[in-house]
Amino acid sequence: MLPKNIRLHLFIWFWVILSFIFIASFLVLTASGYTVNFKAKTIQKTSMLIITSDPRGAKVFLNNSLRGTAPLKIIHLRPTLYDIRIEKEGYQKWDVTEKLEGDKYIREDAVLFLKAPKISDATQGDINNILKEQQSNIPNEILVKIPKGAKNLTLNEAQDALLYSTDSEIWMYYPNMPEKESYKIIARFSHDISKVTYYSDDKHILFVENGELKIIELRGTNATKLLDIPTSDFGVTNDGAIIYKDGNKTKKATVR
């Protein structure tokens, strides 16, 4: 039998080597995009989040934990649900819940709007810069697909998505998609809505509800009040400003 001190050294070296192998294996797995789920006793492929903000430099919170400022790439995320929140001083917060799946990544491009829009008198140049709404050039083959009573019919610039509304709902119709997938409700509200139209980026929808001008993403998230507005008659300029009437004056609201 080996002497006691030699057996002790061999025992220590055994655990040192075993620990090294375990740590090295864990690091190799992590570097390869895998993580160990000890609770489920499985090895999972990790996910990644790529986050940008407009304006840049907004704080990015993941499950209420500050992870940095946008633009930001967060790697080696365990596949599960994540609450993503983006904040910047002077701007309204942006948030969404995403389900991450293994070996995939999700990109979020957050557009932030001012808490207090800058209101000024509109110039003739501002008025001339209002985007033309594509309401009169809708093909008949699309019009016949839209429910009776639909209002505010507007095509996007690519002409592959028709926006419309009912009394308290906002809908999209996608003519190039299969029939069962071509209609999508964006949002439903407790008050009637009016003047539903695309924002200048074609990624948001503007609408008036109960005297408030609001904006919502095409996927129905981040419904945000921009300002109180005395009329549902407004226009959007190429650079995203809102032009509206306030009594006898024409006003411009800079919302970004």
Can you describe this structure?
The chain has 256 residues and is mainly β. It folds into three domains: 4-32; 43-111, Immunoglobulins (Immunoglobulin-like); 118-254, Neuraminidase, CATH 2.120.10. It is 14% helix and 44% strand. It has helices at residues 4-31, 124-128, 140-143, and strands at 34-37, 42-45, 47-54, 59-62, 65-69, 72-77, 81-87, 94-99, 105-111, 118-121, 151-155, 162-165, 169-173, 183-188, 193-198, 204-209, 212-217, 224-228, 234-236, 242-246, 249-254. It has a four-stranded antiparallel beta sheet, with no helix packed on it. Strands 10-21-20-19 form a four-stranded antiparallel beta sheet, with no helix packed on it. Strands 11-12-13-14 form a four-stranded antiparallel beta sheet, with no helix packed on it. A hairpin with a 5-residue loop joins β19 and β20. The longest helix is centred in the first third of the chain and has 28 residues, at 4-31. The protein is elongated, with a radius of gyration of 27 Å. It starts with a helix and ends with a strand.
